[in-house]
Amino acid sequence: MAQINDWPGRRSAEHLRQWPRLLGLAESVGRPPFLGLVLLGSFARGEADELSDVDFVVLAVEGRFAEAWEQRHSLHPSDAACWDYPRPPDREVAGHRWLTQDLVLFDGLIGTPSATRVADPLHVLVGDEALSRQLVKRGPISDAEREERKDEIALHEIEQLYGRLKLAFRAHLALAPDRRGEIGP
């Protein structure tokens, strides 16, 4: 079993339905060419809920990105629906995402520490905590930058639909917290 580093949101994450899947991912990065696993987003902030996707970066050993990329399917269950996003021509990083059969969305990157740009908060889930100092830090994406980049990469259809489902479900719960479990007027 891979050594899972502690972080402030771990206790709440351990009780979520995504936890067993997250442990599976952690186990799969415990050997070369993989170097570690970094959590981002709501899990890193300690704000994840039952609908949260798992935002992550799997770090590859410098100079072994191609090998890590070839092994990307070992990161998820064989029955997961997965898709890739293109690698920028000048960096050793690319997107690999999947949705498990129990509807856990993994939204991630595979990259070398020197090629990966991330915003805080982040947490090194697997690997040496010093990895966080090797990553290139960037600020949050502004609304203007998001608008400018919206056509750069179109989201996969599964990712779009999952996002809409999450929003609809959360809106339903917000409008009728006393009717949880009920669907309809």
Summarize this structure as a short list of keywords or feature phrases.
185 residues; alpha/beta; Beta Polymerase, domain 2; 6-stranded mixed β-sheet; two-stranded parallel ribbon; 30% helix; 23% strand
- Helical content stands at 25-40%
Distance separating the two termini: 47 Å
Task: Determine the mean pLDDT.
Answer: 89
Instruction: Report the CATH topology name.
Output: Beta Polymerase, domain 2
Instruction: Please state the structural category.
Output: alpha/beta
Strand order of the largest sheet: 3-4-5-2-1-7
CATH architecture title? 2-Layer Sandwich
Number of beta strands: 8
Just give the CATH class. Alpha Beta
Characterize the largest beta sheet: strand count, sense, and whether it forms a barrel.
6 strands, mixed
Q: Return the domain count.
A: 1
What percent of residues are in strands? 15-25%
Radius of gyration: 17 Å
What's the assembly state of these chains? single chain
Q: What is the 3D form? A: globular
Number of helices: 7
pLDDT below 50 for ≥5 consecutive residues: which ranges? none
Order of helices and strands: HHEHEHEEEEEHEHH
